[in-house]
Amino acid sequence: MLDTIFAQASAPGRSAVAIIRISGVSAFAALELLAGARPPDRLASVRWIRDPRDGSRIDQALILCFPGPGSFTGEDVVELQTHGSPAVVRALLGALAQLPNLRAAEPGEFTRRALMNARLDLAQVEGLGDLLAAETAAQMRQATTLMSGVFSRRAGGWRDALVGAMALVEASIDFSDEDLPDDLLEPAEAMLRDVLRDLRAELNGTGAAKRLREGFEVALVGAPNVGKSTLLNAIAGRDVAITSERAGTTRDVLEVRLDLGGLPVTMLDMAGMRAADDEIERIGVDRAVGRATMADMRIFLVEKGGSIPLGVERVPGDLVLRAKADLDDVRGDGVSGLTGAGVSDLLDRVAEELGRRAEGASSTSHIRQEGAIEAAATAIEAAMARLGGSEVDFLAEDLRSALRSLDFLVGRVDVEAILDVIFRDFCLGK
Fold this sequence. Notes:
Distance between the termini: 20 Å
Order of helices and strands: EEHEEEHEHHHHHHEHEEHEEHHHHH
Largest sheet: 6 strands, mixed
Strand content: 15-25%
Number of helices: 15
Oligomer: single chain
């Protein structure tokens, strides 16, 4: 029998309301010790909460009871909505800690119990984790789609098709001595082809999906003293980078997180690119080349008569802009971090370009999910290569391998070893 757990589900610190959750077989008994008779299920009730040790009042709270299995965790759950005073929360958590059979929850333990009790599958849990971490509208939409079960239902459809194909393959093995139709495996081949097409299409969109989840990186690239740091400060609306007339002031890579049209974007400022004599500056230039090369997009800043620095290749989608447009009254593809000229247009162009890339995003945004789908697709390809041959037993094993991969995708098998990693960054009350 699992312990009964409790935790603050709302953010710590002073607030209008604080939420404390209790989940487990002793949840209702704990409530009765705190607030008397249990109120009707799923009906909000106002009660005084008292410390069971001395009967002193802690706070007047709104109480909700959710009996299992129809609760978030699948267990009996109590939710206490108190005033958000840190003193109230401390007193209530202290009182709960003294009750028999109760203990403080670990990070993500409420959601972990929801997974164990089949209230959520693993893909939905990952979607919930993404939602808790979402910073932009695009990340929120991506997370809620995963959390809603849409992806899990698609995986279920792929699994059902594989089971149907496998039934035909097993029939050809078990009844090989019977007079079976010559085209028995043709429907199986059609099912496998359809599933494989869907899996490959899903994999093709994983790059964009992971960028949406983790954020795009855009690098400001140019020669020393071309105005990259001044532009970064203008984009951020604050002094992020030190600016100076002295070339080579920026040595390390500076990052600013932005929300551009709902897309998560990290803007990178870095050392100006030149053949540096100073060892530290040379290290900065090497880092700049590496980060700029790996970035999703580059903004090349060039002065009048200048050119794109050597060492970083321009690729389709990158921008080349005239720097310090305020000095030459440049219009069009010019930008000035000092006056702000062209900055708004620049951000619009970056958002438009990255938005086009995000359009191809699939539902697969986690490495674990991608690995499971890749394994399933590989196994199906191996099975299709055996169709029409004599290795029917091996064909069946390939299909079983594909099924195991799809089960792993939604957490039906072999996931215990990775659960601690998945729940590590969850909130205590979730």
